[in-house]
Every structure is written in structure tokens, then in C-alpha cells.
Design goal:
Layout (H helix, E strand, L loop, with lengths): L3 H14 L7 E4 L20 E7 L2 E6 L2 E6 L4 E6 L15 E6 L8 E6 L7 E5 L6 H4 L10 H8 L6 H5 L10 H11 L12 H22 L7 H8 L18 E4 L4 E4 L1 H4 L16
Antiparallel strand pairs: 1-6, 2-3, 3-4, 4-8, 5-7, 6-7, 9-10
Protein name: Formamidopyrimidine-DNA glycosylase
Cofactor: Zn(2+)
InterPro entries: FPG_cat (IPR012319), FPG_N (IPR035937), H2TH_FPG (IPR015886), Ribosomal_uS13-like_H2TH (IPR010979), Znf_DNA_glyclase/AP_lyase (IPR000214), Znf_FPG/IleRS (IPR010663)
Length: 288
């Protein structure tokens, strides 16, 4: 799933390559991705791209007074092309392409596809004149990179949830998902199952430092990359996430995994849990 660094890099890519170009045509192959109908998607045609923005993990292309906003969800992506095919997309086909945006005359200009792999179709697109008219954006917590140490303490205060769950709740902190939360907690040396409201001042300081360091480093590595290389860049920078069974780069212990029905996360026992092995969540309890 694209998280704050990748979405920021995609926004940067659109600022550098799409701003100033006119929208020639928008093809929609999967009508289910469109979550708004007024204004219609055809309202973009003929108008010039004026900016690109990010709200948490939401990506927006500004076209005049309108904003084409997408949430890429777990398996969505933006695929840029310097020369898009002019052939219209066929609605209901088996192609992973859900929407195509031509930035100029079709067949003679660049543009991008919004794609989604897999069978769980969660990619979402809105066309609005105010991004905060989208309830999911209006309800976002503060952006992860905007938080001061005191801000982080304030947003976690009174929250009894496990820290892994809390910092990935977009209504609490916007932008962090499964992968970077694993990385942040590893750097901070905090168990994913630690209670958010029981973190010591030292742990809160370490968490804030790790959050800013991990995300800033990932943004720095991602911005400027082509959209096609961002996924590989993300994987290359991960130290524990998706590295089950491999040695921790800090202490050499084996990276372990906790699995749920439809996702998993990784951690280092030595660095984060005082050597304790956390039970697979499908076993429903934590090993003592």
C-alpha cells in the first residue's frame, strides 16, 4: 500500500510532469472507482493542470478549480506514460487499468493510468471543488511529518490502543501505514503491542524521532524517482517489514512476523520486545 513517502513522491512527479498540461480526455474503465458524480468527470476536459497535492495517503491533481483525488488503497498505483495509447478503455474488461487521464490530445501526449491489481477493488476516485468535502479527508488527523514532540504526546494521550494500531489510524495520525509503522517502531525500539497511553517520556521521544527520521529519509529517497521505480525504492529501504526470517540489521536476531487474516507485520524480538516472541494473531493470544 502506498504510504506518505510514496504518495508525496507521486505528487512531486505530477508537479514536475503534469502541471501546465491540458486534460485531453479521461477514460473510466471501472465505474465503481468513481465516488462522486457531480461535477462529471468530463468537466476536466480542456482545462489545465495547476498543481498536485497530498493529504495523508490521498493524492490529488488540481485542474483549475477542481481536484481529482484518489486513494490508491492496498493494490492501487499511478502509472505514468510519456505517450499514452489513444485507444479508449473498455469498461468491464480484465485490464488492471481503472482510469486513464490523457494530458493533451489522445495518442499524442503523456498522461497516467490509475491501476489496481487483485480481486479486492478498493481504489477510489473523487472529483470535487473542495478536497475537504470528502469525509475521509476531512476526518484525517495531523500529518505525520507535521507533528512536534508535544503534538505527538497530545494525540496519543488517553489512547488505550496498541501503538501499532494507533499510529496507523488515519484519524489519529495521517500518512503512516503497515510498512512504515513497522520501520518506525523498530527504530524506536518499541513493541508493536505496547499500549499507546503507557509509553514513557523517553519512549515518546524515541517514537517521535523515529517517525520523523524514517519518513523524512523515505521521502528523500523517493522524491525524484520515476513512478515506475517507487515500489522498488520502498522495498530497498525497509529493514524489518516484509523481511520475516532475515537477520535484523541492528542486532542480528531473526525478524519475526505476526499474521492476521489479511495482513501481517514484522518486528525484531531483541530490539523491540526484550526477546519475547509475539504469537501469530491467528492463534488469538500473545505468548507470555
Amino acid at each position: 500500500m502506498p504510504e506518505l513517502p510514496e504518495v508525496e513522491a507521486l505528487a512531486d512527479h505530477l508537479r514536475r510532469h503534469a502541471v501546465g498540461l491540458p486534460v485531453g480526455r479521461v477514460d473510466v474503465a471501472a465505474l465503481s472507482v468513481l465516488k462522486t458524480f457531480d461535477p462529471p468527470i468530463t468537466a476536466l476536459t480542456g482545462h489545465t493542470v495547476t498543481g498536485a497535492h497530498r493529504w495523508g495517503k490521498y493524492l490529488g491533481l488540481q485542474v483549475g478549480d477542481l481536484h481529482l483525488i484518489t486513494h490508491l488503497s492496498r493494490a492501487g498505483w499511478l502509472r505514468w506514460s510519456d505517450a499514452l495509447s489513444a485507444t479508449p478503455l473498455r469498461p468491464g474488461g480484465k485490464s488492471p487499468i481503472a482510469m486513464r487521464v490523457h494530458l493533451g490530445p489522445p495518442g499524442q501526449a503523456p498522461g497516467f493510468d490509475l491501476t489496481e491489481a487483485g480481486t479486492q477493488k478498493r481504489l477510489a476516485v473523487w472529483l470535487v471543488d473542495d478536497p475537504f468535502a470528502i469525509p475521509q479527508i476531512a476526518s484525517l488527523g495531523p500529518d505525520a511529518l507535521s507533528l512536534s514532540p508535544d503534538d505527538l504526546t497530545a494525540v496519543l494521550k488517553g489512547n488505550t490502543g496498541r501503538i501499532k494500531t494507533v499510529i496507523t489510524d488515519q484519524k489519529v495520525i495521517a500518512g503512516i501505514g503497515n510498512a512504515y509503522s513497522d520501520e518506525i517502531l523498530h527504530v524506536a525500539k518499541i513493541s508493536p503491542f505496547a499500549s499507546a497511553n503507557k509509553l514513557t517520556d523517553a519512549q515518546l521521544g524515541a517514537l517521535h524521532d523515529a517517525m520523523i527520521t524514517v519518513l523524512t529519509d523515505a521521502v528523500s529517497r523517493s522524491v525524484g524517482q520515476g513512478a515506475a521505480t517507487l515500489k522498488g525504492e520502498k522495498r530497498s529501504g525497509l529493514r524489518v517489514h516484509a523481511r520475516t526470517g532475515m537477520p535484523c540489521p541492528v542486532c542480528g536476531d531473526t525478524v519475526r512476523e505476526v499474521s492476521f487474516v489479511d495482513k501481517s507485520f514484522q518486528y525484531c524480538p531483541t530490539c523491540q520486545t526484550n526477546g519475547r516472541i509475539l504469537a501469530d494473531r491467528r492463534m488469538s493470544k500473545l505468548l507470555k
